[in-house]
Amino acid sequence: MKAMVCSKYGSPENLHLIEMEKPVPKRKDLLIKVHASTVTAGDIRVRTFKSPVLLWLPMRLVLGLSKPRKPVLGVELAGEVVAVGSEVTRFKPGDPVYALTGMRFGGHAEYACLSEDAMVSIKPANTTFEEAASTLFGGTTALYFLRKANIQKGQKVLIYGASGTVGTFALQLARHFGAEVDGVCSTANLEWVKSLGASQVIDYTAEDCTQRGQQYDIIFDAVGKLPKSGCKKALKPNGSYVTVDGQGMAKVRIQDLQLLTELMETGNIKSVIDRYYPLEQLAEAHRYVEQGHKKGSVVIRVGHNV
Q1: What Gene3D superfamilies does this protein's entry cite (predicted)?
Q2: CA distance 60 to 66
């Protein structure tokens, strides 16, 4: 099969298309023909290996000393089950599925193996493979931090970075939980973020969202660029501040996947896709994501010569 591998830490030039052996499913595994994946902030962090000094050695031991131990990156995917292990009971060949591979990675290849007990589910029928593939990283991350902030119905929430992968889902999910949500983004995305359901949209290039005289129950920094120290005036006395900065990958539960599937099927949330790239142009997709200006997700389309 074709796969894009990261040969060493550093620039996008270290991503190479190679031929490698197709994985063989073990007794509890699914073999998935990948139709779509994404390039997320998690992929960028691993490829560039940007780590706090105190975590440098532990992270190298986890990820790989001189290069990623799992060279095929890609933390989410969608595709079709083509084979199952002898003890698999929840899935069968032909099932359309989507999955969050997380630290297992593997999405940037034509095939991937996952345990049936992993974060994998039948793809919502009303979504494309591309839409499904671009849901779980942002959706589960947003869920984790909103729950960490103990979101409640009727609260007022500010999402900083409301046009990014995590921010778009945080905005939609906060509204689902019954909150009133304001979003912060750049000038180009104002109307678009408003269309996702924001009560107010604040242009960070023209106005400081923390100095407007409004106070929030929750401030969620979805891009890691709004320090807590600058949010004191905008937080209510018992308000919560949460940020993705320095958090790595959020802790996720199978119930999160089930909730996101249900909300997609009922049309209460949707994935937002900025650009599409073929697998062969993965390096270019990394360059674009690394600029930090994408709207929603950047999708990788994976082709098959079958």
Answers
A1: Medium-chain alcohol dehydrogenases, catalytic domain, NAD(P)-binding Rossmann-like Domain
A2: 8
